[in-house]
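ingest -> validate -> predict -> emit
validate: passed (alphabet ok, no gaps, 175 aa)
predict: started
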Amino acid sequence: MNTVLKMLCGGDRRSIGRSDEVVQIILLQPEEFDNLFQGFYDPDPIIKMRTADAVEKITAQKPDLLTPYKQNIMGLIEKTGQMEVQWHLVQILPRLPLTKAEIVNTYQMVEKYLTSSSAIVKTFTYQCFFELALQQPCLLSQTRKHLEIGIRSTTKAVRSRCRRLLKEIENYEER
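emit:
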């Protein structure tokens, strides 16, 4: 196991452990990003979760680091069942350099996340839909339908995010 992943070991799923330290290391040494990315394939769910957290935070500042991993991320979207990884992946997806066809395909792959038992996964999935729809406007209608269902959620966070995103769609369409 490489040094970066060793920093992500231990503890439980309620803690991000040392992932913020890993973020700082990778931001200063981007060549270490591959070592971090390998954590998505580690059998330890804590390492996977903390890897996802760190990758999401790093790529918010340096989205170009994702480019070589586009296919890997698509595979992770389809295969991962771990909710802590899912909610980070849907935040990462809109940062990928996707073609219009890939955006539509990705959107369809992510729709299954709406059946998650996690309100956090659902909330970030709605946000992902919105961001992908801004890149591919043919998805705005479908996004609006999803959001209209989401505002009837039993979860306050989901309802609130969906209401806000519906307003943003209206503002976008009025321009």
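The chain has a mean pLDDT of 95.
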